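Troubleshooting: if your tokenizer reports a length mismatch, compare against these two reference records.
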Amino acid sequence: MSEYLHVEKPFLDQLAALGWTVIDQGQGFIPSDPAASQRDTFREWLLPYIFREAIRAINLTPDGKAWLTDRQLDDLHTQILRQPNRTLLEANEAIQALLFKAQVDVNEVTGESDPVVGLIDFTHPERNIFHAINQFRIDTPGCPKSCIIPDIVLFVNGIPLVVIEAKIGDANTANPMHAAFEQLLRYRNGRPETTAAGLREGEPRLFHTNLMLIRTCGEKAEYGTITSGHEHFYSWKDIWPEINRDYTPPLGVEREQERMIQGLLAPVTLLDVLRTCSVFKDTDSGKRVKVVCRYQQYRAAHKILHRLRHGSTAMARSGVVWHTQGSGKSLTMVFVARMLRTSTDLSDYKILLVNDRVDLEEQLAGTAKLIGGKVNVIESTADLREHLSTLASDINMVMVHKFMERSEALPLRVAEALATYRAIPSGESFGVVNASERILLMIDEAHRTQGSDLGENIFEAFPNATRIAFTGTPLIGAMQDIKLRADFEVYLNKFLQSLNLILPHSTGHPFRGPARRFGYLLRMVKERYKDETLDIADAGAKVIQCLKLMSCSKLQTELVEVSPAKVRQ
């Protein structure tokens, strides 16, 4: 089967079923008419007419009148096109900021000066125009090859957000995924050997507005960003929200490609990822990178928001996220906060990030800046009572030992050690700091402190707050050693495929023992209930039943979920 029939056409057909307008230019030839892809020339990489039509339509006065003039639309077009003396990453970061907030000189209908213009309507995704165009030719004069032809490009309001390269294995392509990666590098003039030779190839401007890159051969499909190396492309292993799981794969079987399209490229999901789950950050080595969420981060963040919206009590809104080391929990906190800030019904939440070590505070402080806006660092117990008692919808960060009332101050390192080992002497009641229900506590490394008096003080200070605890400790294996609070409904991100636990690769990984024990419990469930196709949502409850039969009464869980190891940029 050809690349077109095995990969490209099924990709386009599935996008069409999700609501994308597909322009299929076929296969086997170089496109010769730019009008077929909504352009005047093959040098254009924005779709100019779609851009003007869409931007004019989504920017209306309160009484529904379009107010942008032709001159202003031309100016917005130029703001995107003109990125002088900027690297690809610099231009990409600048334009992403424009996608969230662009401005023109005046609203000539209302008289407002410097009004904000929406280039994408994130609040009403259905008002945007979504195009998927295959064989998208862009001429590249002065390069060794006269043009590039990415297999598929996805546009929102005429702005290219996703570039997709499809390959299949054949006599000339032993590793189609690596070949697709190299092709994506060539398209954006990203191959070091080309630069070293003093040559230029591709059209980097196509990637100035890029959210993500996708390489696919059908059976495997992975996404990354313009800064991702070959090893930093990842598959999207789950379809969320669950409503999108009801679909018919174009070829009759669900491969990684179909799962990624359904889980990541649905129009609403793609815009959500762009708005809340794509960030630019500096790595420890000093290199700046672009990061897009992984599927377990996106799913966990939305589960938290679902609880905030539908939980009737503090307990019902709270929970525990169990993650493996390197799974990106700090970024998950960032994505949750960004989702809150951009929502219409949850934006008034006060956010409090709680940690227990200086090095974690520094790390989390750097990550918290990605939320946007000011992050208040609470320096003392007095500051805690003063700043956190207000109803302001702000972002705060505090070390857990600030919840310890003592007449004599302890050295910071001693306080850290006490928090870490939970050997906190009981003291007087800490008291209520803020009784509001519109408070979200996100507690880092919660297993070290939440079984101590510090944990009691936190809950006493914010009795009606939502508490989301993040821990990497294997709760099942360490249940005898961890004092679980009844206040926490434990839920752990499910990463089970047909009830088979996916074990970490490292034989020395601390999860291996507990994972094997839990794997044993799952096998016991299968045997007990004689159901090899047991629904994953029912598995947790049935495991609990088996555990109760084994007198493991201390375990209180609602759902068992594990996040995969290692997330990299």
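Reference record two:
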Amino acid sequence: MLLSQRKESEIKQLKEIFIKDGQIPEASRSRIRPEILASWERCRKSGIDPKCSSISLPSFIPDNKPQKDGGSWALSDILYDDVLQEFYELLENNYSAILCAHSDTGIVYFQRGDKKLLQQINDSNIKIGTCLKEYYLGTTALSLGNIPNQPFYVYGEEHYLDIFQSLATWCHYSKDYGSTLNFIVTSKKDFSLLSLAFLKLFFTARKYRIDLFKNMLELNLKNQMANQFMQYQDQAYIFVDSLGKILNVNQFFYDLFHMVEADVIGKDCLQVFPVLNNAIKCLETGEKINFEEVCFDYLPNQIQFMRMNVTPLQESNGVKGLIISLSDSKKVRQTVNKISNNNAYYNFNNIIGESSTMKNIKRRAMRAALSESTVIITGESGTGKELFAQAIHNASRRGEGPLVALNCGAMPPELIASELFGYIEGAFTGARKGGSMGKFEYAQHGTLFLDEIGEMPLHAQTILLRVLEDRKVTRIGSNTSVEVDVRLVCATNKDLWRMVIDGTFREDLYYRINVVNIPLPPLRERITDIPLLVDHFITNFNALEGTGIKGISPSALSFLIGREWEGNLRELRNTIECAMQNATDSIIELEHLPVENFRSKSEHLVKAADSTNEFAKAEKKRLLNLMIEYNGNKTIVAEKLGICRSTLYRKLKIYNLS
């Protein structure tokens, strides 16, 4: 027994005083648990009759039509039916019963236990469909608290209703899959501290079992989701245990390597793939490997080189396994091109120019875009060679592929070959671990744009010629060739034929790249396009800088048209940007132009050498003689000198012969 007969008799007397007088003498209040006394006070205030022999049913639950529940207690039958069956038998053999109720309504939906006890409480209308809350049952274990996983009990005379005098009630709120109130009714003479400990232990074990089951379900679901995710990935996944054995692979692995399960699962990873030696070392080091290149020389050429990522599975006592992912070269190229922003943004509609010269050049470039021939774009610096290269790429059948650009003049000569063709690990001092793909491989199924090709060293020219002839790339330090499908577009501001004569550019490479030649005119030869270009630059800078420039004055525009523009479009763009910053109104005036920037390089050179340079003196003398001989006819003089009229005007001005 949990309480002695003397103690329970004392509680009975105090309860009778409370029911009669509505209160207990102050000196005796400590003899009753505070939570019990608080419940009695609520019951009295609610008008509950302690002598009632039958419990009222809640009006919102129809009699004989209780709500069903598929909650956690039913789930427990699935989890451990054998243990639960023993618990039911224990209740049945010890004059005990359990009633399960919804936590929100308190409505009973399940009962099990000793038949005599169930009959006794059912006769008092405590059954399926009854509400166990304090308003209906008075003081019971349920009325003392509603805290998840915290048990409560009420013993004998502590109950408010007389029908519970011979009983003890115990309640446990289980909040796992379903929120359930587990209400135990038993004989008070058999209810002891051991009973309390047993019930608490049972429901605690039940909670852990349900949590374990829930975690198992979540883990299985995550595994299924991970497996489905990996099956649809274009990467090969290999799962390796702490001993280096292959535990699992995905379907893409089987498709890529043409293997079956018997060839892989349970096998030593290094026996199947000796090239994964660096990956297996991670079992000892615990270090990750990101994007390291490995070569499977028995695979087709286009997928021999693959990128490997290794993620060790760390636990407190060491590395328990590895996740190895292998990406084929196509996937790597797509990823790197996306990250590196290897895209072309300009098309022929972005090329400003309505002069006859520009229209002819654009038509020629459009025809070149439709072919697969190698294109070389020539012209002075700042004439828009890269813009034309992007437009040609976008208009070609390779427009969906990458446009990979390399400025040969911006790289150290000794690095150009490795940048273009790639290299393997250990190919040279400073080579990156795992090697690297070259620009040709990055540009697969797209366009490779080599700017300033005249700066390419001779040894790299030799390799480039071989790649163009064979359509295969061999990385530096490797014996394996990789087929490439790349269109080449080149650009230069140099006279390549003069370089061929001087021996600084290979003649055979010159003929190989000079298939379609697109010469871009300098700005001084397309002066009718200057007004269009000025309007274009003003519009762009207004949008970029938030300025409100509406146009340019006729005098300022006339001045711009008369300039030589040795820097071409780049110089004009800089001039307009500077003028917009200088402008104090919405119109660019002549005084807003950065006149200090307009002294041409030739003016500087000639003026500085006028008194000392014999060449300048001789040129000035020849100009003077020709002007006298042809009576100032500048067209004939320019023809005799082999220069354009604008250049002649500039020279006459420099030498003060105008």
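Descriptive notes for reference record two:
- DSSP finds 26 helices and 19 strands in the chain.
- The longest helix spans residues 193-231.
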